[in-house]
Amino acid sequence: MGKIVLFMHCSLDGFAAGPKGEMNWIHVDQEIFDYVATRIAATNTALYGRITFEMMESYWPTAADKPGASKHDIEHAAWYKTAHKIVLSNTLDQTKFTNTTVIGANYPEELRKIKQETTGEILLFGSPSTAHALLKENLIDECWLFVNPVLLSEGIPVFADVQAKQQLNLVKTQVFSSGVVCLHHEMKRES
């Protein structure tokens, strides 16, 4: 059975984006890209909310073709082209995208079915609204939070509307030279 793994940057005070979706405070560099690339290469399925997917689609299909494309752009663009993409949306037309499955209002049932049929992991990139919805449905199995050394004081929270206390097990931490810390947690499940 597959599992859904949340990959998200956040501020030290728990925001995934600024009040208007700003992400210019997120620190990424080659050290973080290399760490994440190793992790991403171990899977072939990505999960996005509509807004994040549209951002990804506007960049990754041609990122490697741009003059001066970075190592990260070349590697991630190659992965993105072959990865199966799952998008939570009530408005996108699945037929306009290759290797993409669009799931609408019945997403909890559909994702449970996809998890049953998947042997690997399904990486949820960013997409705070989607993360909130999946947390409500108990569909997220692990969290990889890249905590940036910045306080935003307001914005879009990483975790919102959590219905009940959820325990997590810390699996690993990784401290980067920039001061960003990756916290890898597994969600505790009741037996």
Automatic annotation (TrEMBL):
Q: Which domain of life is it from?
A: Bacteria
Kindly give the InterPro entries that the UniProt entry links to this protein.
Answer: DHFR-like_dom_sf, RibDG_C, Riboflavin_Biosynth_HTPR
Write down the SUPFAM superfamilies for this protein, in alphabetical order.
Dihydrofolate reductase-like (SSF53597)
A Pfam entry, by short name: RibD_C
What range(s) does the Bacterial bifunctional deaminase-reductase C-terminal domain occupy? 3-181
Q: By its UniProt entry, which PANTHER family does this protein fall under?
A: 2,5-DIAMINO-6-RIBOSYLAMINO-4(3H)-PYRIMIDINONE 5'-PHOSPHATE REDUCTASE (PTHR38011:SF11), DIHYDROFOLATE REDUCTASE FAMILY PROTEIN (AFU_ORTHOLOGUE AFUA_8G06820) (PTHR38011)
Protein name, please?
Dihydrofolate reductase family protein
Q: Lineage from the top down? A: Bacteria, Pseudomonadati, Bacteroidota, Sphingobacteriia, Sphingobacteriales
